[in-house]
Amino acid sequence: MFRWFLLCTLLLGWLAAPLHAQGVAGAPLSPRGGVIALPEAQASIDLGEAYDFYGPADTRRILVEMWENPAREAEGVLGLIMPRGSSPQQRGWGAIVTWEDIGYVSSETARDADYDALLGQMQAAVRSGNAGRRADGYTNVQLLGWAQRPEHDSVANTVTWGKEFTFFDGEPNTLHYDLRVLGRNGVLSLNVVGSIEQLPEIRSAAQDLGRRTRFDPGARYADFDAERDEVAGYGIAGLVATGAGVAIAKNVGVWALFAKLLQPLGIALLILAAALATPMRRLFGKKASDARATR
Asked: Structural domain tally of the chain?
């Protein structure tokens, strides 16, 4: 919740400021476009004028102060990407950028992966967690299926996939969309949560962001040296499987609710946040008693 200001002039000034520049307690955020260097990943993303990037400090403020996450949820986050013209305070989407230093992920078996079987395992994991969620007073959730089956682009060295979830509270279905850009020493992750109706927009943006991402010479996927480099303990299918444990940062009090979905999955991979405002509460997490009261 935004703090009350002692001086009305400061409050009016904050309200008059452009949304993208507003921060907590009136302190301005500093989104920027153009080429964004990500030295931790030895990579860069050329956002041009199509997207805004919030650096680590701004992203921490957005996640912790504006969206009220525990401070630990901002650890290791490189930044937040949003469409130009949107803001963390508006309904929309945002992609949290992280670097996964897991070594080289082989794509040799990508075409042989059984994604139907993988989906079945993830669905079973979600179902097994519902008893615990009910005991804690939360509604059941179901992984309906792939919103987009995993796709490996061997030219761009990217992997994308989307999952559709429904909560048994009568609200719109939820989309989890993942983009991984493969590098020599790990993968750059961009992750988005939104409503299922946003799938075309988010899928198009993910493809665009994948094309805009470049690893530095020597850190590219093609620079892999089998005799010297560390190799991840899984391939493309394993990369998708680890994404089943995405931890969603919240807005307007949602974290504690949505964590009830994620904890039973038992996969300790922190990924992303969503930039939905008040409607995110409806998308991601009423308690069962709240849901019944609104029906």
From this structure: 1
